[in-house]
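Subject: sequence -> structure tokens, single chain

Hey, anyone have a minute? Need the predicted structure for the following. Not urgent.
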Amino acid sequence: MDYIVSGLPIEPFQSLFGLDDEALRERGAVRQVAEASHGYPCRVSLQDAEPGETLLLLHWRHHDVDTPYRASGPIYVREAAQAMARVRNSVPPQQQRRLLSVRAYDREGWMQQAEVVDGAALEPLIERYFDDTRIDYLHVHNARPGCYACRIDRG
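Reply:
Had a minute. Here:
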């Protein structure tokens, strides 16, 4: 099965990097410092921030469709992120070590299936979902605490 795991594009966030705390608050964002490994997942690079690294916590519309499944929520973006991650035919370590909620959508943005899975078992689920011709793409969320994680498309 050929698939691509993608982070968010970096361009919408670059203008926020380096802003002071007041300017970030005016835009509904806050800067946080990672206190531990594996607790601050960047949605652009698909890498967890290292302790001491700064990230922005902000609201993001990750599923901008004209259906009741339009969705948004909080995300982290590492200020050191350089580019949007695109990983072909491999599940990034960030997703492998988490409990995930995977949502399968058709071309119009209607959810067709959903399942909670341990990240180590994500790849077989990708294959099963993409065997269904109705499924166009997947959105992956961290089941704890439930934030958007990444998108998966057919390769």
